[in-house]
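A brief tutorial aside. Many learners find it easier to grasp structure tokens once they have seen a single protein encoded end to end. The record that follows does exactly this for Microtubule associated tyrosine carboxypeptidase 2. Read the sequence first, then the structure, and try to relate runs of similar tokens to stretches of the chain.
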Amino acid sequence: PPIWPMAMVRAGGESSLAKGTVPLPLLSSGWYCSDQQPSVLISSPISNGVKLANSISAAGNGIGLPPRPRSRAKRHCNQTKPKQSPSSKSHGKEGDDSGRKLCLLTAIKPSNVEKEKMKFFKSDFTYNPQFEYENPALPNVLAKHSQASDRFLKQSINIMERTLQKYGSYEKFEQATGGSLLTKSRIWNHVRKYMVKEGCLGEIVVHLTEDLLSRASMTVVNGRPTLTINISTAREHWLEGMLRHEIGMISYSFLFRNSLFRGFNNNSQPWCNWNGRRKHGLKPINPTEEGLASIHSVLFRKDPFLWRAALLYYTVYQASQMSFSQLFQDVGKFVQDPNTRWDYCVRAKRGWTDTSQPGCFNKDQVYLDGILRILRYRESIDFHLLTALGKISYEDVDRLKGLAVIENMRVPHFLQDHARYMEHLEKIMEVNELTDEELQDLID
């Protein structure tokens, strides 16, 4: 008979898991609480009254997880409190999208953000931060990611202006469409319900933190998908969209590619590793992966404005032309709150030490780029196969479908009704005033 996975909630985050503490047996009621160890094993939904620690983990394999080895991430993300050896920056082959990007995003996270933020705010927003890095990325690596594109600049501006026309300000848009910020216990309840809906309860480790530049991030740590959620941005009506972004799409790529449901088998597809990708001539997974995930984050919203992707794209381009203080003032056309503006500007300027000079980190342009490419070819893309075949570009689907291992194929629940899914894509086009003619002119 099947074993229903328990959920393990452990305070202290990654550091606690790394200590190798072994979960104690459950009581007959299904609950275990310890004064000596800040952990709780849960086999039933958490009530709203339960207070969770700043960082939680949810995973399961029947009763509990074995001691967790030292983490080694497999996919790029903004990690919390990153530490790496100097040699780790160069790990990963050219084209190896996983290890290389993780190391890069770790290396470009400034170590003195709060100190420089205080200086910047005290200067009445005129000071240009001087960022420091524990293990800075190599100059040639930064140079590779310093070229911003203006290809979709007009569309990014139009999307934001359209949003402001309807809501008046970003802050009003955020409150009206995102709802109120959630408590930790409510975040956990939402996450658990979504995992039940997708049939992956107990398969994904979940952490809550306030130390993250993005809203959330997904990594694979020792073969186990790990989701980190920024609690300072977790809003009532946006959380499920974020879960669709991270779990519903990206982690499904991990599930199929790494056969999570069959014991973390990493050989599900012939292109599951770098040698396989090279052998089959696969294109890079981005912008497809981030574009599709970004679409899913707004899929069921009443007004699916592509605001965040548009603002990220715009901010990166402007950062390539401006100093930090100039960029901060410029972004004020769209965002009033200085703390929100600061966050966007730091993302666009990360990797740079002297921000008085024009310069950007261009990774954040991938979201809008990917969205528009997928919308451009939405009628010809087989979204079921694109999801099920793992970490591939939409351009490779037709070529690879005959080589794929498709047994036990699964797709997220929101992809199971194709007609409804396509209706949502049409609504995204309409709300953001995008036309097929426009996209065809921009994208070959």
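Self-check: Confidence is low (pLDDT under 50) at residues 1-102, 249-267. If you spotted this yourself, you are ready for the next section.
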